[in-house]
Automatic annotation (TrEMBL):
Keyword field: DNA-binding, Transcription, Transcription regulation
Span of domain Phosphoribosyltransferase: 109-239
Residue ranges annotated for the Bacterial purine repressor N-terminal domain, each copy included: 5-74
Official protein name in the record: Pur operon repressor
Amino acid sequence: MKKLKRSARLVEMTQYLLMRPHTLISLTAFADRYQSAKSSISEDLAIIKEVFEEEGLGELHTLAGAAGGVKYTPKMDKNEAKAIIERVCHQLEQPERVLPGGYLYLTDLLGQPGLLADVGRMFATAFAGREIDVIMTVETKGIPLAYATAACMNLPVVIVRRDNKVTEGSAVSINYVSGSTKRIQTMSLARRALKEQSRVLIIDDFMKAGGTVQGMMDLLYEFNAKVAGVGVFVESGELGTEERLLEDYVSLAKLTSVDLRTKQMTIVPGNFFD
């Protein structure tokens, strides 16, 4: 790369860091890239770090030593996140979104790249302090959420299938009981998709009683893997006499009441904001 003026270098360095979250980049690599002294690079990084933290864009960690450098951790300010989720809650309260069984129509929202990027940063913020190797979700609506989170955390994605695909080779399949319908269903994961002892963050779009998430947790047991966390976009508080199958999870929004006759419902920010 040709030598840049400092203003241009700051812009390019910022973009370089934003595109490589959770990646350790040495000062030497920056110095070679911009043909600048390490002292100048350090000053630039100090400016970027200050702006990131003041604007709630994340944190820039400095690691000292010969193998050191800087690492960008994306985060989102809680106030900014709450403003976004409150707008989402308002959209979700539209009567036409109520589906039979008290479910919500989410597909159109999960097709908006801007919202997905914001949700990914929220989940990355919620689980920033945990050691995670891979993001897991079950097809299909959870897939965009998982990839958005993975992009912010620089992690691979593993997709649990409802049916085993021939193109994925041998797989491990389990039966699980849906927490909301009480029906026995099947999910499977290719043997090559997940290494043993992996620390897994489960991401899902909607959780009622938690049967699907519990099924994924049971599937992880077959791989001798560990659950590092569970994140759901919307949880339902309308369980009636049912019991939630899990307690340790992070939700961004919560359906607190729904009237299937009038299609009136109330949705509030989830426990991420508690």
